[in-house]
Amino acid sequence: MSSLKFTLASSFNILxxxxxxxxxxxxxxxxxxxxxxxxxxxxxCRQSGSTASGAEKGEDTVLKWFLLLIPVSTFGLGTWQVKRxxxxxxxxxxxxxxxxxxxxxxxxDPMELNSLEYRRVKVHGRYDHSQxxxxxxxxxxxxxREAREAGRLSSSGESGANVITPFYCTDLGxxxxxxxxxxxxxxIRPETRMKxxxxxxxxxxxxxxxxxxxxxxxxxxxxxxxxxxxxxxEAMARVTGAExxxxxxxxxxxxxxxxxxxxTRVTLRNEHMQYIATWYGLCSATSYMWYAKFIKGVRL
Length: 300
Hints:
InterPro entries: Surf1/Shy1, Surf1/Surf4
Pfam families: SURF1
Membrane topology: Multi-pass membrane protein
Keywords: Membrane, Mitochondrion, Mitochondrion inner membrane, Transmembrane, Transmembrane helix
Low-confidence stretches: 18-47, 146-156
Subcellular location: Membrane; Mitochondrion inner membrane
Radius of gyration: 33 Å
């Protein structure tokens, strides 16, 4: 709405400026010739009027086609946003299909892993609770709420951490990193959730994730203080001795009394409908103004 008001105001200002810069100059020009050629004012006045009229028509023609760029450009931007929305919806559908597909056995080939982000995999083994890592602050994943709050600077006040635990895969003979899920602030310390600290071998289904680049304004990881703010797989692997392979345990792999799984965020910001409405609205408004001014001859 603010963009619409700005464009309309700009269009009115352009028209006023052009009008104020054109007509007074023509009047001064005519008066000057009238005083200079008193005895022969008829022919010079006709010539000056014809010259001014031609100049006015030329300026109006330039202005006419210049202002037409506004509705044309806004129509193009609206159409571009339609295509962007289709692309975003397809991306969301693809991510959802990956995170809900039947799990496959975890591959260990790094080249294969790099092409399988968000793919569900399954592993069998046991957790090493002595080397837990904590990514914080984190709020529990709620896809419906996150879709509503996309683009906001703040979200839910609920805050805690994601618990990252080395997991020894008995069938593969390697240790990987598993994001067991979310715990609130008062459950971050392991002794507050001993029921979920199982030592038996378990089956885990998780969503494969790759390393994460630090975003602007996100603090650096505090390795010594065990306060992590983003996934740095190489650093996490060095600290725990695990391979730089990371999965988010799904909700169904949650162990009673332990962290709540299913913390994979796949909600993408999708505000393209607002942009589409804004650009097409601007196109309609400025098209009407152009038609009223240059076709109907209405003074704006």
